[in-house]
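Intended use. Records like the one below are meant for learning the mapping from a protein sequence to its folded structure. Do not use them to infer anything beyond what is encoded.
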Amino acid sequence: MKYFKNAKGDVVIWVVVTILCIFSLLAVYSSTGTLAYKKQGGNTEYYLFKHFVIMGFGIMLMYATHLVKYTYFSRISQIGLILTIPLLFITLLSGTNLNEANRWLTLPIINLTFQSSDVAKLFLIMYLARVLSKKQEEIKHFKSGFLPVIIPAIFICTLILPANFSTAAILFVTSIVLMFIGRISLKYIFSLIGLGIVAVVLIFSLAKAAPNLFPRGGTWINRVDHFLNKDKADEDANYQVEQAKIAIVSGGIFGKSPGRSTQRNFLPHPYSDFIFAIIVEEYGIVGGGFVVLLYCILFFRVVRITTKCQGNFGAFLSIGIGFSLVFQAMINMAVAVHLFPVTGQTLPLISMGGTSIWFTCISIGIILSVSRRIDIETKDGTEVEILSEGNPVPATS
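Structure written out for the chain above:
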């Protein structure tokens, strides 16, 4: 713990992030062997070095973000949300097509590719935290409290949905959780959940009736059918899940030890979507359980930060981002052990990636920014926090 004694913000979160990054480097190095032989002539260190550089830059972004006073993100969210809408439209119309979905945008000159949904997810959560904190006095009203929150949430989720159903669903659930914590009337929340269920049924029905309307509709339907009707699932369609099961079973309690996975040679994308299966194979149920525990600790610390916040914006911001990250992690791990249909969601801070890791690091940096501000207020009883409403309130010691 001496290494972290000078870290600003929640020290436990810094420790958890560091351990997850170490797991990431080990798992990515082990799971990219086959990919290295296919694309890099057997240079197995290539992807390790690349991932190390990406992860290192992500930590730098996290550190820089946590130094920013978190109340600035309230204004930034407004600008970000306005920029996100045309970004999502451009992605839908002319983004890079991968697996029948336009998810990626490539920035000219620097040739940097990123998922616009990662940007939208972060800015929407920030914006909802801002609106909820500002509307607390009229939060129970439909027109002045509920509509300003739900309209941007539905709009952004709808733009993400055609190319990335699982991300849209995670963001929608996160929005509902934020509304619940933000004291939106329960009758509106339950109505929204009901409408969401009806919308999902309608979308799947339209995808079956008119496949051209949703290019990814066939993939969504097949994944759900294969999950619900395991006996009817054909071997090719269920290949990923079966290989993940073999990896998990062969890992046993203590695993085969690092670098000795065999299913990495058979699993499609063992370094991203199914990296948790490789972790369990090499580190066993004990190692897999430890990773789950790390995410639970991360969420516990986020909740603790939320309860200690002097202002509503910081509380909503940290819990919204924290819930989104941990919920995505649980979905990824549930898919790997076949408790949930295949979604294509990565494991935050562990799966190999580029800009997705950077956005995750920025998100954690925002949480640490809130925590850092709490530490300042705790140490200095005269410190004041500018709440989202704009009123300076003396911090309690």
